[in-house]
Design goal:
Radius of gyration: 16 Å
Number of domains: 1
Strand content: under 5%
Order of helices and strands: HH
Number of helices: 2
């Protein structure tokens, strides 16, 4: 938990902001936090029935599968051009 909150979360924010235009970095940080919080909220709401029906092992299996399925199309998205 400490590793995810203390290292990975700030690293994801930095990566997200670094990929944006310098004039849009505030918006990039805001978009990251919005997506992060919506993901937590929607994930807990949508995955609660999986937890109730299949237990913790089923929850982690389904959540991992969703993450992997989502990652493939995201890797194909074009990266924005950087301003010099």
């Amino acid at each position: 938990m400490a590793f995810g909150s203390g290292i990975l979360h700030p690293a994801l924010i930095a990566l997200h902001v670094e990929l944006s235009q310098p004039s849009q970095r505030g918006r990039a940080a805001a978009a990251f936090y919005l997506a992060f919080d919506l993901g937590i909220g929607m994930g807990s709401w949508l995955l609660a029935p999986v937890l109730q029906g299949f237990g913790i092992a089923g929850l982690f299996t389904v959540a991992g599968a969703i993450a992997l399925i989502t990652l493939a199309p995201l890797m194909r998205l074009p990266r924005p051009a950087q301003e010099g």
